[in-house]
């Protein structure tokens, strides 16, 4: 059994690869708006998936946390520009408090390799 950790830190790894599956930690980013944070987070997800040998077309599931569900449409505009038509994952979006007040969006994904 091989487990590979990507961007391993003292508290957590940004991604963990096991059995041809990559598990990403929830990604957050600074920025003034939900749209800006979402764009940055999606770029981070692209980079982590690439480091694991995967890409967004192989995402199996995504969980999106919003501090204000009223921003669902704003986040979705960026999401829909990013996902590949016909390759969209299963997804859940919930309203939740995040780790710091400046974060408005957090996205966690699991993908195949």
Automatic annotation (TrEMBL):
CDD domains in the cross-refs: YjgF_YER057c_UK114_like_2
Pfam families recorded: Ribonuc_L-PSP
The organism's place on the tree of life at top rank: Bacteria
Family affiliation: Belongs to the RutC family.
Protein name per the record: RidA family protein
Protein species of origin: Camelimonas fluminis
